[in-house]
Design brief:
73% helix; mainly alpha
Length: 167
């Protein structure tokens, strides 16, 4: 059986997905003055969660692992740390994506909170395995700021998906 090539607009659609993730990576490593650097949410994970919920057949665990490794390199963390956290969160999103699509944005925000919390806990556990660390109150701020940013991320990426017909 001969497979047919993908139409050109599907290549551009996937390119737009990659472009949004790359922009999220730029936000992740951008210089934020003072307190803003402390509350900077995990933009890459938020964008990966959106695309895995919106297009689970296009964005999955492989993409989470790949962009997690790139985030490890960009942030200078232990290699594989973000890859593991992103992959686990995206796995959960893929398992629940049909149900989560039905929820209003506020209930999705609660799910996002727990996804970001799981990611932060995994990152803390891995950091604590390397050398014992104290858990500071500022450690949890990216979880809260990411949850508050979810409606914005959702709205912007939904606009990109619908206006550019990303499938």
């Amino acid at each position: 059986m001969k497979s047919r090539p993908l139409p050109i607009n599907e290549y551009f659609g996937f390119g737009r997905i990659i472009l949004t993730i790359v922009l999220a990576m730029a936000l992740r490593i951008a210089y934020w003055p003072g307190f803003l650097s402390t509350i900077n949410p995990d933009w890459v994970l938020l964008v990966l969660i959106y695309w895995s919920l919106a297009l689970p057949e296009r964005v999955g665990i492989f993409h989470a692992w790949t962009f997690g490794l790139l985030t490890d390199v960009l942030t200078g963390r232990m290699f594989g740390q973000y890859a593991l956290a992103y992959s686990l969160v995206i796995f959960i999103c893929l398992k629940l994506h049909k149900r989560l699509r039905q929820f209003p944005l506020i209930q999705q925000g609660l799910f996002i909170f727990f996804c970001l919390l799981l990611s932060q806990l995994l990152l803390f556990l891995i950091k604590n395995l390397q050398h014992p660390a104290q858990l500071k109150a500022t450690f949890w701020l990216p979880v809260f700021s990411g949850t508050l940013c979810w409606p914005i991320v959702y709205t912007v990426l939904r606009f990109v998906r619908l206006s550019r017909r990303v499938k």
